[in-house]
């Protein structure tokens, strides 16, 4: 799942045009072939001037010369292979992290070192060594990563979750493993499942360090995102009505969507699921849902876990750590909104398609369309996948947090087709 750690010379990824790199590779290979043939021709045609008087020396010198030329050819081939490897790295835009920098933590050096397999080459994978998994973008933030990896071995981990999250949000994902003990929080006042789904989570179950709020009462009235307005209030807020009571035609009810799955919905994945209410509604209906989230401005992971649900601390830039075709349902709302070029959204959509089984449902829930162009880009992208539109509604919805301003939103339930290779 992890990506390879590689070095950027000047701190930024440099991507060269594939055409130029291809030309360079072709020229280098042509040069190697011509040089090799010239050396071989010279080796097998060269002979001493006096062939009559020095027959023995002639044979000995020829053998020696051939051996020398063969060694030279092998060195040339080895040099060419290394050059091709270097060109490939430059095409990718990064190399290996420089572990000899003066400010690199010793623990980071130890973690990133390659370790030989104890029994030599593995017969199944062909590997001879284990390579540590760490995001290649970590190289750009080596100082921050080194700070994260500075701790006392077998001691308590520093109270630095904010450092870890900064790295993750900058593409340094997965993070390096550490050899320290995370702070233990006594889970006092947890409710048994399934009562825990709709009971308030206790303040003492959370490490509030680094957060502006120090209790859930502080968070109840806050808007922490377009899909999280007072989402920590499970008693008096809107959370206890979500997915079971519609406020407009854009809101789909969970039972209606499950009916479209013809009883085949067992496990699901909620992308950017806020405080876990979608997973709670599904749990009420015997459906297991994993919720991806990050602790941005609030303890989302601890709150979801306190409800007896499965949180997954993961950014949208990370490839989903699931095998192909495993989920019956994928639910996403405005967490699907990624800034930048349309290609970024394509990468995300293809990964969603990868983990969703054929016949499974993709529920796009109240997706905010900032403008008509954005809606068209998303619509064209969805149509490329050939999904069947079971429900598709575009309309306006009043955003009470923006002085009653109306917004154009899209809600859809799409069914993944069975594709023939």
Automatic annotation (TrEMBL):
UniProt-recorded Gene Ontology molecular function terms: methyltransferase activity
Organism: Quillaja saponaria (Soap bark tree)
Membrane topology: Single-pass membrane protein; Single-pass type II membrane protein
Keywords for the protein's UniProt record, in alphabetical order: Glycoprotein, Membrane, Methyltransferase, Signal-anchor, Transferase, Transmembrane, Transmembrane helix
Pfam families xrefs: Methyltransf_29
Main location per the UniProt record: membrane
Transmembrane segments: 20-44
Lineage top rank: taxon: Eukaryota
Keyword hit for Manganese: no
Family (UniProt): Belongs to the methyltransferase superfamily.
Compartments in which it is found: Endomembrane system; Membrane
Gene Ontology terms: biological process: methylation
Assigned GO CC terms: endomembrane system; membrane
Keyword Transferase tagged: yes
PANTHER family: OS06G0138600 PROTEIN, S-ADENOSYL-L-METHIONINE-DEPENDENT METHYLTRANSFERASE SUPERFAMILY PROTEIN-RELATED
Protein name: S-adenosyl-L-methionine-dependent methyltransferase superfamily protein
């Amino acid at each position: 799942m992890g990506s390879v750690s590689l070095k950027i010379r000047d701190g930024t990824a440099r991507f060269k045009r594939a055409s130029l790199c291809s030309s360079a590779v072709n020229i280098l290979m042509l040069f190697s072939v011509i040089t090799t043939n010239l050396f071989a021709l010279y080796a097998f045609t060269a002979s001493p001037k006096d062939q009559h008087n020095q027959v023995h020396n002639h044979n000995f010198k020829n053998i020696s010369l051939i051996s020398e030329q063969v060694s030279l050819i092998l060195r040339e081939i080895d040099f060419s292979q290394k050059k091709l490897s270097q060109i490939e790295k430059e095409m990718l835009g990064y190399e290996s992290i420089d572990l000899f920098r003066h400010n690199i933590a010793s623990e980071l050096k130890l973690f990133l070192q390659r370790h030989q397999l104890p029994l030599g080459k593995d017969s199944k994978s062909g590997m001879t060594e284990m390579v540590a998994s760490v995001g290649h973008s970590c190289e750009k933030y080596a100082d921050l990563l080194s700070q994260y990896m500075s701790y006392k071995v077998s001691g308590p981990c520093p109270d630095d979750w904010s450092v870890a999250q900064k790295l993750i949000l900058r593409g340094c994902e997965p993070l390096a493993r550490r050899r320290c003990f995370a702070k233990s929080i006594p889970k006092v006042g947890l409710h048994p499942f399934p009562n825990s789904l709709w009971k308030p989570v206790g303040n003492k179950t959370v490490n509030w360090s680094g957060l502006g709020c120090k209790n859930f009462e502080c968070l109840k009235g806050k808007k922490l995102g377009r899909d999280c307005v007072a989402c920590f209030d499970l008693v008096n807020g809107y959370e206890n009505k979500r997915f079971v009571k519609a406020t407009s035609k854009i809101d789909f009810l969970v039972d209606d969507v499950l009916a479209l799955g013809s009883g085949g919905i067992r496990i699901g994945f909620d992308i950017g699921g806020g405080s876990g209410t979608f997973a709670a509604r599904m749990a009420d209906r015997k459906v297991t849902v994993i919720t991806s989230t990050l602790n941005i401005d609030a303890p989302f992971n601890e709150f979801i876990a306190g409800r007896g649900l499965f949180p997954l601390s993961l950014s949208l830039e990370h490839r989903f750590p699931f095998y192909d075709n495993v989920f019956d349902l994928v639910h996403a709302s405005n967490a699907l909104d990624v800034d930048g070029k349309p290609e970024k959204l394509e990468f995300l959509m293809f990964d969603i398609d990868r983990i969703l089984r054929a016949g499974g449902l993709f529920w796009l829930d109240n997706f905010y369309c900032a403008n008509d162009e954005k809606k068209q880009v998303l619509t064209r992208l969805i149509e490329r996948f050939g999904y069947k539109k079971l429900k598709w509604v575009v309309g306006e919805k009043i955003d009470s947090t923006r002085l009653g301003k109306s917004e154009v939103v899209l809600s859809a339930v799409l069914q993944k087709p069975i594709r023939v290779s």
